[in-house]
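Quick start: read one record
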Amino acid sequence: MTISYQRRSLLKGSAAAALLPLTATVHAAASHRFAIGEHDFLLDGKPLQIRCGEMHFARVPREYWTHRLKTIKAMGLNAVCAYLFWNYHEWREGRYDWAAQRDAAEFCRLAQQEGLWVILRPGPYACAEWEMGGLPWWLLKHDGDAFLRTRDEAYLAPARRWLKEVGRVLGPMQVTKGGNILMVQVENEYGFYGDDVGYLRALRQALLDTGFDVPLFQCNPTNAVARTYIPELFTVANFGSDPAAGFKALDAVQKGPRMCGEYYSGWFDTWGAPHRRGGVEGATKDIAAMLKANGSFSLYMAHGGTTFGLWGGCDRPFRPDTTSYDYDAPIGEAGWIGAKFDAYRAAITPFLAPGEKLPAPPPRMPVMTIPPFALAESVAVKSAMPARVIKDVSPRPIEQYDISRGLVSYRVTLPAGPGGVVEVARARDLAWVHLDGKQIGTFDTRYRRYKVDVPARSKPATLEILLYTIARVNFGPEVHDRKGIHGPVTFTPKGGAAAPLEHWEIRALDFDADGVLPPLAFKKGRGKGAAFYRGGFDAARTDDTFLDMSAWGQGVVWVNGRCLGRFWSIGPTQTMYLPGPWLRKGRNEVVVLDLTGPRGQGTPHIAGLAEPILDQLHRERDFPRPPSTAKLHLTGVKPVHEGEFAPGSQTQDVHFAAPKAGRQFCLESLDAFDGKPYAAVAELSLLDKNGKTLDQSNWTIAWVDSEEATKEDGGALNAINGQNSDYWHTALTGGGHPHRLVIDLGRPMEVAGLRYVPRQGPDGVTGRIRHFRAYVGDGLVTDQ
């Protein structure tokens, strides 16, 4: 049945009442009515099966929006899912930007022209491997590490203002007003983060207050569907396999049509890890199964695109995402299609509505190569720093200085004296440490490396730290990701006591929202250390190309003043997609910030390739890591729990007989259900005495006996990054059980249980642990 907004008050207490706040108001001038029935989505009273695909307009050049929307339509989809990233439109508080590349309303209009409905996801929180999950950095000027995504007014008040602005701009695009927006999402996968349903109700009310009258919904992974369910919001499930389990979870909480809010066509890449791919056969079977069951879905991603500029996010605990957001989606980074697109189209075709025919996909955009061109001019970063100096007794997060992101220089005087160690409380993200201009070490937040050895000094010396903010974490409680050097900073002389280093001078190149370049005085010659480089090329055509950055180090690229994105030669991405519309016939200028310097001798060059390089890993080009001296000590240690997991892919909670305090936790896998010598964990959380998950903000991997790093990304960090779709997997070649994974919790914690998410996928995937032991202590792993 279809229930109009006006009849809500008449149906309180009925089975359908739970859905009433979701259905669209019927306006006299509206061209369509969209509602949620008992079994179907209903458009003008008739069933509508939603075949949707995600495409982020911020990740696709505006000039190509129509081309990509036509391709989505040709794959067999009838709707497009669109995230809004709050920080993309309000980078500075109170200044909204909806122009040009940010014109969300125009994107919706173009989708409508192509016959596509829109499912809008305005946040406030999005995730999406985007800077801080879409939350604005200026929220972090407020103190505290637990106020984001809560009812704290420091967060909720600006979030309401944002949603009001969204309503002003996109409210007229609702189906109830002649537009094509069918539904609007409230928050995103909140069940992965918290369980305060009052927070969800507050955001729902904010959307209603701003004029949204189409159905409002929330999404969660299958295992979290019930955690934040409220009857006022329609619920959809997110998964990359096993639609039956996802739909079963939905049936357990609501009566209504079934929908997968995010079906994962592939996965995103992080710097220093192998390129991810998504299978075709399993996906097409799942798509057919969902459609056959009268289910709806949205592919995440249908078209990934590119995270241009500095908008790329960071996986937890700290694994920055690549600029390429190809996602191994059926429509590739540059809009290309191939076997995966054809397979998805073939899987969808049998379920088209009577009389519905798919258009042919549009032709591929032309591509060109660019012969190698020189970047023969350079200027050192230290020479580009502004004259303005911030003075502070001890460094604080850069947000406190109204610096959003970029490069930050910290200088302090070290008195004459013996050698010792300089240590910072935290360095977010990477930093190069110099003494009187000579590099003496690095800080690296990926490995919580916050100490540097300092040589003896016969006279006072200048200690300078050059810090580079890569990206803010976009997932989990770590979104409270304040950048910069965090004090106190101490110097400990050999044989002496630690003393604070005080009275710092701080300068910053703030790249702001769109990677603004500072004034640069280039000179002929190759730079030394961190430097900007400039060169250019002449183009007779303005076609797409892929800049080959494999001979460079780490930094940022600008073309004709537009920030193209970040590069890092550790891979897996070695190229940068350069869209043709951003080029000019004739001369094109390229500026590169390289913080470690290009490899080789002589003048550095760049070429434009006809194809991207997405799968070329070079870990040897990363910062040198000191050899590990960690040693495992389990002999004679009594486990806090010993047991057996249940078979299958479901999340399992294990409660210990008695809580135990310690700084380290070890999971020991004794065997696997399939009898093979591998262990795998999709996600591992620890529980307090109330069954709540412990804070993972400062967790790192202290020790692991084995991890697969060549044929796939089976790194141990995957077990604590909050993503069920990836996993730690022991090496595919090597020894068998027992396997051990040890987590450093960052500080002593009382552990009363664990939450284990097995490797996801169909029955038969390797690594699902059967018998296990758990240990908690302070000396399970020590440095020798």
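The mean pLDDT is 93.
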